[in-house]
Amino acid sequence: MENSIESMRAAGEACPDSSDTGAGTVLDPVSPFVKAEAAERFAHRFQHSYSQAGSFGKTLLEAAAQTLPLGSGAEKIVYEFGANKVAAILAPYSPEHSNKDYSPEVMKRKFYERKLLNLLAPESIPDIHMAGTSPPMLILDRVHRAGSRDEVAVAIERKTRFGRKDPQSELSALGLRIDPTGDNLILDKGGNTVYVDNPMGKLNKQALVEAIDALSDLDKKRALKYLSRLKEHGAEFAADEENENLELAA
Length: 250
What we know:
By secondary structure, the protein is α+β, with helices and mostly antiparallel strands. The chain folds into 2 domains: 36-100 and 127-141, no CATH class; 149-243, no CATH class. 36% of the residues lie in helices and 12% in strands. It has 7 helices and 7 strands. The chain has helices at residues 36-52, 55-64, 104-120, 149-161, 167-173, 205-213, 217-232; strands at residues 69-72, 77-80, 85-89, 128-133, 136-141, 185-187, 193-195. Strand 1 (69-72) and strand 2 form a beta hairpin. Helix 3 runs antiparallel to helix 7.
């Protein structure tokens, strides 16, 4: 893994690379209330990410480590990062995720896809502020939970009844899938059901063109910029069988 941080902000500018000058500081970001075996797993994954990080990446990890982990999945550990953001450290421990590609091109695609989805479904998808490679990590808006899993289900059922979209229907319309299990769906303080994991699948060309066309002029311009960056970094799109030759305007 290269010892530099690749950060992509909304303007599409990259941060300068930083060489790895850290001394391998031992950090303990683990809550004493986490079970011993889970704590060991947290610590191992965090230390692995820290050992691979460049100096800028180490600074970000040290800031994240000042708080207790908010959660953990097969691919990542999530920490509070300031008052209104989270740092999702992509530190896989399960075999099916151990060989994942976190190259700069992949992380740039993650960044621009998230920026685009947040424009198209702002109530369902948290915004992203940075994507890095050293270590692989995402800085996202934090969603403050305001309801239980049961209340999430009730909110989605109510939205469906009144013809409002929920994350699953919004992303499905764009050709993507979600994993609705666990805490991937959260009810926020505004009463929105928010999907906090990474969507799966490929964006559908026709659905994407139609969704972007429905945006305001300003948001449409931003969406086309993100779409152009996605294409530049090798994103693949799904096409309807009847529209395989549809070109994305960008």
